[in-house]
Amino acid sequence: MLVDADCTLPPQASLCVSFQLPTGLPIRALARVIHCRPGARLGIEFTHMGNADWNALGKAIEIKESYQRRSIRIPERLIVELYWKQGCTPVRQPAQTILLSRHGCLLISEASPPPKTSLVIWCVERRIGAAARVVSCEQGSEGLAMVALEFARDANFWGIDFEPWEWQRHRPNPNFAAPDHRAAAH
After folding, report:
1. Which of 32, 56, 89, 91 gives the lowest tally of CB atoms within 10 Å of its CB?
2. SS3 of 90, please?
């Protein structure tokens, strides 16, 4: 869960959270800090929650997706520029990121090419660019487009660790072969 918080807590710090679901149901849970942007927000992981609360939360946030996310999402506002061709005309469009992931980002922009368009995203702050493609684009009510991009290559464009050590520990390692304990006993 992402929590807006004007505090600074170290990763792995334990805390108790309480919040209300859109249905009005109050939820209380124990959690720990996964990542912190000091004075702005915390990413937390629930460590203990009652079954009824867990089921109610699951129903409230259920998303109809037929795939599993490949990395965590980190909310971060960065100024970027998008470059693509519309017909033969080159287009440059400033944008601002909302969420970053190892494989792309979600951003807002005044204009966007249609889905499946290839483009270049330039991160002004880091002075680096990458090839990407538009996965989806939705026009918002304020005239801004919400654009999902996927990078063309599997590189860590943002320079952020998207897989905290706790997540890696629970993920199976395809290169790991379990030792044969019977052989070691002889």
Report:
1. 89
2. strand
